[in-house]
Amino acid sequence: MQTGSAAPCSKGRFLAAGEAPAVEIRRIHGAHEADLCARFMAASEPWLTLRRTVETSLRMLNDPRREVYVAVVRGEVAGFLVLQMEGAFVGYIQTLGVLPPWQNRGIGSRLVRFAEERIFSESPNAFICVSSFNQRARRLYERLGYEVVGELKDYIVVGHSEILLRKSVGALADFQRPR
Ligand SMILES: CC(C)(COP(=O)(O)OP(=O)(O)OC[C@H]1O[C@@H](n2cnc3c(N)ncnc32)[C@H](O)[C@@H]1OP(=O)(O)O)[C@@H](O)C(=O)NCCC(=O)NCCS
Which of 30, 47, 131, 160 is the 20 to 30 Å CA partner of 149? Predict the structure, then answer.
């Protein structure tokens, strides 16, 4: 897997930094894709600090109550998204990740927009949490229209907060599902 400013593309060509790749977003398939995402999480921030392991990541990725999607570029998994669309917290973007060779090419923003299309077809609120030490990810979400609605102190690990953000397209009582 490549690192640095170039990401693999078709026919041996490399994408220049900032060049937008063609991305397909679909449901995660098979143990191999879940394993890849879980290993990335367990070896990367913010999940290292949050003490996520391969096992706890796999449990979430394989949980049938969640919707798990991957962003695929030329057949290769470049990122993933875990959505919660059931229970008390409908419209929660639980996890978002883009593998290092693909970061900063707009794939994370594409995954958030995809999540919003899915969420706003059922509910007027999209929620996401970001760790208090993850300033770069928070900057991205604020740029995409998310606003801070609360701080969960010592929520996952002591000493760090989870910042809850929301993007809303209207009040619950006014919401009508798109036909
Ligand atoms: C955060 C993340 C999902 C964004 O996806 P992406 O495809 O890199 O993002 P985009 O190209 O659409 O947007 C770029 C923005 O993402 C953010 N970003 C980029 N790399 C990042 C990284 N390693 N960690 C956190 N945020 C990052 C920055 O805000 C960046 O914009 P800026 O530096 O110009 O301000 C991705 O970088 C990632 O998986 N990071 C590591 C894990 C993580 O922080 N996940 C989010 C948990 S809430």
Answer: 47
Determine the distance separating the centroid of ligand 1 and the alpha carbon of 93, expressed in angstroms: 15
Output the CA 130–ligand 1 centroid distance in Å: 11
**What pTM was estimated for this model as a whole?**
0.91
Torsion of the alpha carbons at 30, 49, 125 and 149, rounded to the nearest 10: 180
Instruction: List the beta bridge partners of residue 7.
Output: 15
Task: Quickly count: other Cβ atoms within 10 Å of residue 75's Cβ.
Answer: 7
- Ligand 1 proximity of 130 Cβ (cutoff 6 Å): yes
Task: Give the SS3 label for residue 41.
Answer: helix
Tens digits of residue pLDDT in 65-118: 999 999 999 999 999 999 999 988 899 999 999 999 999 999 999 999 999 999
- Which structural domains are found in the chain, ordered by start? 22-174 (3.40.630.30)
**Burial class of 78 by CB neighbour count within 10 A (0 to 12, 13 to 18, 19+):** buried
Residue 1: both structure tokens together? 């897997």
Structure tokens at 153: 């102190």
Residue 127: closest CA among 177, 163, 178, 153: 163
